Amino acid sequence: MRAITNWIISFVFIAGLGADVIAEERVVRVAGDPYPPWTEGEAGSKATGGVAVEIVQQLFDRLGMKTLTVVYPFERGMQRIKDGSEDVILMVSKTQEREDFISFTPPIRNSRWVFFHLKEKDFSWAQWEDLKPYRIGYVTGNNVGKEFSAAAEKYDYYIEEVKADVFNARKLLAERIDIALTDVEVMQRIIELDPEFQNKLDWNDKPVFESFYHLGISKKSFLAPMLPKINEVLEQMKGDGTFQEIFCKYGKEYQGSCEGN
Q1: pLDDT in tens, 185-230
Q2: What residues contact 104, with CB distance under 8 A and at least 6 apart?
Q3: Which residues contact 177 (CB under 8 A, 6 or more apart)?
């Protein structure tokens, strides 16, 4: 049944989206979450763009396949990868638990997680105990690192979870939380895209967690045996300037300056 649904005869209907598809063309189903600049678009809809979205489009174009990227809340996207409803998930870090149901490509980008706060309010921290007085926000299901998770349990942090980082930006403005734990490049992009947040939010540069983002292939996907070829094409894209071109389109350098791109 899984194989049949990947061969599309006339229409694909995923998460409430109808899409015309060329007969007998295999479509790679991709899960993204509202995570600019990597995935852009509204939850429940087809992605409108993003670095990772364009990378997978180019990747599977070279492999002779089309992609359909739908934006889900992160936790839902992970569940769909786990049960085989999606083939690829964008920009995920490795954990032992995830390796049970995901095969990871080589790294796409490093990630650095920091605390954002209202610009008008001073915030700094040196050790885990310093975070105990603060109301902390982060996205449900995100990998925030073993050290932070252990500290949260030890010091009984006050934590509020949301489905997307933009909600934490709004909660910071409304002073419903004090600090938000997120990828620095993601929140920078959210601020850049919405004048409501500009010149109002800032971050403390001390990293909470550092890792790497990968593309994740569901172990239940028809793509799973193709992982070596997928990895080979990704390395070609890194070497021939495709990654640099896509990253620069969104104002992010990959290797070297974006000047002249």
Answers
A1: 999 999 999 999 999 999 999 999 999 999 999 999 999 999 999 9
A2: 92, 94, 214, 215, 216, 217
A3: 135, 136, 137, 160, 168, 171
Start-to-end C-alpha separation, the chain? 45
- Domain 112-211 in CATH: superfamily? Periplasmic binding protein-like II (3.40.190.10)
* Residue located via tokens 């509202």: 34
Q: Both tokens of residue 9? A: 């005869």
CATH code of the domain occupying 2-109+212-249: 3.40.190.10
Q: Please list the residue range(s) of the chain that carry CATH number 3.40.190.10.
A: 2-109+212-249, 112-211
| Tokens representing residue 89 in the block | 């998930």
> pTM of the predicted model, to two decimals?
0.84
**Residues 119-140: pLDDT tens digits?**
999 999 999 999 999 999 999 9
